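As described in the Methods, two query proteins were run sequentially through the folding procedure within a single session, without resetting any intermediate state between them. The first query and its resulting structure tokens are shown here.
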Amino acid sequence: MPPRKHLIQMSGAPGSGKSTLARRLSKELENGIVIDHDVIRSSPLEQENPCFETAAKQAYDLQWALARDAIKQGVCRVIIDSTCNFPKILHQGMALAAEFGYTYWYIECRVMDIELLDQRLRAREPMLCQRSGVDRSPKAAEGRHEENGRELFERWLMYPCRPDDEKAIITVDSTATPMKCCDRVMEQIGRRQRR
């Protein structure tokens, strides 16, 4: 019997634990690969005089090209680690899964406490494209106009961009330990596979 093929699209506010859970899932699912949007986006920002907006667009294009290439190489479990704040990004993930016959999963890491998100962001070593606090823009975006950080986070928390197919959604309370979050995701995936 061929192995199950999954395309997992992570979602959640910065600091919600997406990357930690994505890496843990890649091990649990065996032969999983994580396409890390922040790594892709930070790389061009290390160049002289980078454009933050251009790097963002290029990073999304490249993340989908890498995911497609991994699928064509036979990787059965592809995890897209990005915030997934826009319908276009959501639809690109679903379309790629459908094109290659992969089961699509949308995994939302939820932390409703903005202060906890802020603590997590301040505690990590940020990449150039990452915030170092709720009210702190990414280092590579310093000097450009941005809306109030708290308002932005409140919008992300209250109005997440989700697929219409509720069976594809797994929401985890990522104030729990990474192990508990991973166990919940694996339980949900296993339950759907048994149907």
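Immediately afterward, the second query was submitted; its sequence and tokens are:
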Amino acid sequence: MSETIDFDYLVLGGGSGGLATAKRAAELGARVALLEPAELGGTCVHRGCVPKKILWNAAEVAHHLHHAGEYGWSPPAATSFDWPGMAKKRVAYLERLGGIYARQLEQRGIVHVRAAGRLEGEGRVRAGEQLLRARHIVIATGGLPYRPNLPGAEWGLTSDDFFQLPALPARAAVVGAGYIAVELASVLAALGSEVQLLVRGNRLLKAFDARLGQQLTEAFVAQGITVQFDHAVKTVEKTADSQIVVTGADGRCEPFDALFWATGRVPNLLQLGLDTVGISPDPDGVLRVDAQARTPVEGLYAIGDVTGEPALTPVAIAAGRRLAERLFGHGNPPPIDPEMVPSVVFTHPPVASVGLSEMQARDRFGDAVRVYESAFVPLYHAMTEDKPRTVVKLVTTGDEERVVGLHMIGPGVDEALQGFSVAIRMGATKADFDHTIAIHPTTAEEVVTLR
């Protein structure tokens, strides 16, 4: 029988949330073990936020090259994107990040167990041949791409596979309407692929204010992306010449070089042994916790994508740090308010949102809601033939017109949102925005000059 090794805190998962909670607990004096069989950093670092933003930057350069002649530059006669070269640089950077995380664990005295953990009850976790025990255990195992259950689904790729492609597909189909789907479609199109976005419903970005999805659709169509609404995929086949043939519920068949499933993610909970401690995911597949990240089992907690909270890296990091501070510190940090979590969709143009959508606000506050909106061509596009509009939308409620939502799409809104999020979280009113001196000429000035 293997010897039981005791710790104060066992962290299952080495992604953003797991790393954050492990490091904070160790800084507060806890003896910590972090269990992660794969690379440190998780989805965000290796298959999500970081590599995605690198490719978004590459796509940004492509858009500027497209406009170079209109800004007085003599662009090269032909341009092509070096996907293998960019991939090599990207991987090297991500490997450096992994090394940084490993050193951070070592510097804090955190034991990195290179194995997956499985709960065995009574504060014990099996990790390969080792048996670990702690008073506090946190599940931070993240999520996995969802693959639909339909004939031929295995021929489709996921967002994880995207970063492993040896070359860009000449013709690609992306299935989905959420942020992963539109980000994939946007990058592929900017880097040279012909893209079709296949949407089962009738709008993009259903989780965001409807105005943003409408404007993004217009931008995509102008960029040559084909957006097909009310398109349910029925079957997928692979031909002898490696073409992927997608058949819709309406009988339409189209061939592609690659098909990407981007219809959501599911919590990574299947191999954890939850049954040994008497709990199970809810019907949505998530592990529900209270505002203190506690499961129904004493001493067992969960943070990040497994909990159904906004599946964003900063949310997992904040939840992890606050949990460690509650368990090993002397304070009681406030819980995260999911309605005040800012989010950005890295498309071209980018989408930025915080707070309630207009529909959510009207459902809650009724006639007390007042909406301000501005749609305009930003100064950058005054010099270009294409004239995409930037949209800024402010949602307020009550006689004092407290700001409860801000929704934007256009160049620069990704960087502009953070500061406004602070103001909105602190209870800013429309008058507070009105009394703020604008920075001219910027997109951000529209937020404080809305009438």
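The first strand starts at residue 4 and ends at 12. We note this only descriptively and draw no conclusion about the first query from it.
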